[in-house]
Write a structure and sequence with these properties.
Blueprint lengths: L12 E3 L18 H26 L13 H10 L5 E3 L5 H7 L3 H8 L23 H15 L6 E6 L6 H12 L4 E7 L2 E2 L2 E2 H4 L8 H4 L3 E6 L3 H16 L5 E6 L18 H7 L4 H11 L5 H24 L17 H16 L8 H4 L10
Parallel strand pairs: 1-7, 2-3, 3-4, 4-8, 7-8
Antiparallel strand pairs: 5-6
Helix pairs in contact: 1-2, 1-3, 1-11, 1-12, 2-3, 2-9, 4-12, 5-6
The structure holds thiamine diphosphate and magnesium ion.
Thiamine diphosphate binds next to β5.
Length: 379
Amino acid sequence: MPRGKIKLENYVESLSILEPNGNVDAKLDPKISDKDLLKLFRAMLLGRRYDERMLRLQRQGRIGTYGPALGQEAASLGPAFAMRQDDWFVPSFREPSAMIYRGWPIEKLMLWWGGNEEGASPPEGLRDLPICVPVASQVQYGAGIAWGCKLRKEDHVCVTFVGDGGTSEGDFHEGLNCAATFGAPMVLIVQNNHWAISLPRDKQTVSQTLAQKAIAYGINGIQVDGNDILAMVVATREAIDKAREGEGPTLIEAVTYRLGVHTTADDPKKYRSEEEVEHWKPKDPLARFWKYMKKKGLLDEKSRDALEEEISAEISAAVARAEAFKPDLTEPFYHCFEEMPNHLRAQYAEFQAYLDSAGMSESNSGAEDQQLSRNIEAY
Ligand SMILES: Cc1ncc(C[n+]2csc(CCOP(=O)(O)OP(=O)(O)O)c2C)c(N)n1
Ligand SMILES: [Mg+2]
């Protein structure tokens, strides 16, 4: 076979609509209704204030480790807005704005970060998976769910989230190849926040973009300004439409920046410069959206302050509910087996006896009220 060249048609499309000064590219403006814009702005502000409150709760020892989504709100909220409520949503761990927008009670997210399993059960009726930390595992779940939708001839799409660091994992490649090969209706949002803990994006891969990884799998890929709520809505809408029409998956690289710590367990000053963070601050998605809303005459300082108060009260009420929640400490025993095997029964009995002796059975009783536990008598 002679030496030749196989021609590939490849380029990476890019998209940005809302400038950091709040101006929009009129040709690309998705013309979202005023009502929806206000709803979206409220959701982004709520996501930001939730994030800040969670950091404070962690510092006060009231929740466990927390991974903030500061600066990344648009990258998940845009897709959440573009989806249908009955579509599937597979988050990673920096999508609280989207999860709250989709209907997760705030206290559930608080419980999750407090180490409580109840925070992992999706609210009734939502086709959502819970917060999920194992890096890139989400792509496997997303591909499988999307393929399942196709096999069942359902018209749901599965919107899935992974980070820039996740693109180096086997799960990412296996999941994406599977979704591509089976034409599964998955929209994969890669939140490129430029860091994977202390590893910068340019040491993660020598690929010029993350979006171009789509080319290798023969699917659509686009690089989007992930701090631009309008661009994220438009790109996800288009990808969802394609997926629903049977055109398979799309990879959306959402270019954003992690303005805060990786989690409350690290100190980014050890590995990145203040200048870099300062460079990204003017691109903050919330500041940008606020300027846009103000220019459009949809919000002013007074109405924004009123919104702030309302949101603050909403979050405080959720904190109170989360802290009043009584966990069922025996709940982990119920999840692995349809019928509890003997060795687990023995451990269950031992644990129950410990709770009794430590006077903790009482605090365990809330579970029944909350209909969380299965009836152990049944075993
Ligand atoms: C399979 C796996 N390996 C390692 C970790 C530890 N870990 C948690 S977050 C993280 C970095 C992930 O980076 P990225 O995918 O860019 O997401 P980001 O944290 O920036 O949102 C690592 C290595 C993990 N959770 N799962
Ligand atoms: Mg990252």
